[in-house]
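S.,

Sequence below, as promised.
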Amino acid sequence: MDSQLFINTIKNNYKQYSFIYKTIAFLFSLVYIVASIEVYLPHPLTVIFHELFIVGLLDPRFLSILQLLFLLLMGVSLVYFRIDQNETSIAQRLFFWYIVLCYALNMINPNNNTRNPILGMPLLSNFDEYLLIILVFFYTFWSPKSFLNFIFLMFKFLTISLILRAIFLFYMWAMGNGAQGFFGINATITESDSLFIYTFFQLIFLGLYLLLHKKKFLIISIFFFVFILLSYRRTYAFISLLGSITIILFYIYIIKRSFSIIISLILMVLFIIPLSGYLQKLDLDTNNKFVKRMLSALPNSRYNTKSLEYSDSGHWEQTFNTTKYFFEDNIHFFGTGYGNTREGVVRGQSVTIHNVFIATWAYVGFHLFLLIMFLFFYVIRKLIRYTIQIRALPREFNVTSDFGLLFVKLFILIIFFYYFIGLLFVSIPFFHSFKMQFMWVSFFYLIFKIDEFDWSNYFREQSN
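The prediction came back faster than expected:
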């Protein structure tokens, strides 16, 4: 259980950069965490940070402070992380060029609105796409060691930023000044993009705890989970709970030890108590509405109606009707195009499709639908492969062993899998916006890169 080796790697990696570079990386991480792309049921500060950091300076869709910080970070990263085509696999290169092809097709989409381009320039219809290409370029052509060094630095700063924001929002919630959640419930946070990220990190720290048995990782995981529960957002509570149970069950399956079952039960109790305890303080009418809203997320639920009172309750029917309409009468290779209203292809409750898989084809095109389906089945294939492989390895609980490496891959893939499950219930920005692309591309390349790298030797070098 060589947890100190992992911690030393993070510390030593941090020491090798200049104060200026670390400041830029931390500022990007902090802005990335506090600035949300969603202002639905927001805390007042969420609106302020959205306007300040997400909305563009020259145009609402062009060169926001978050985008500028990313470009600055990537530019300065060239000083520390070398581009090395010799260490780049053919698969990574093909993925990069497919991303370029996808957005080239977006630019020539005949359905694009000619009045949509940013600052009157047709090639700037969506600046986020250029940022994605830049990100994928660096991740593709950085050496695996450079990539891992960057990921560990960002992991440290993103974790710090997440903890700081959660502490502050917990304080606001405890004072009765949290976000205004559904039915007027005082919530910790309501933004979907932020909740996705908190869910990712909650599951990462749970996986690290099970691998390295370091209690502080368990504390962080529980802290984030309680924070997510008190958001009263169904998708993220379900993903976090189901992801946690899945990782624990994989752990039990791998090591065959009964004490893991005790850990899972304790975790589940700790997860459920804060939510149930707080709900008991609500008046009966609000409590009932909240429970019905949770149940309405299930297909064929008797609460799954078109009523807006339970918010997303009509989204299953909406997705089905939109898909039926799309395939029966309006199937096409290209999406609706840049700058066009999307209501024309939606059949149901709200003005946008709450299913990223269907929305990707309908709005953006079949070429990007293929991308998201490739990623989804890639994750499933790897999950099956690694689950079979890990049972044959000796149980060595450290980050340098083949067992430890496979376990890390497994819990990252589980996180990735539940992210795709979450995409069945949310709208298209939570996959195609740059903020979310930065997260899922980093996860994807982490699996890509560590398959082609001497992981054990890396940790030994970096920890010395």
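Strands lie at 179-180, 186-187.

Coffee later?
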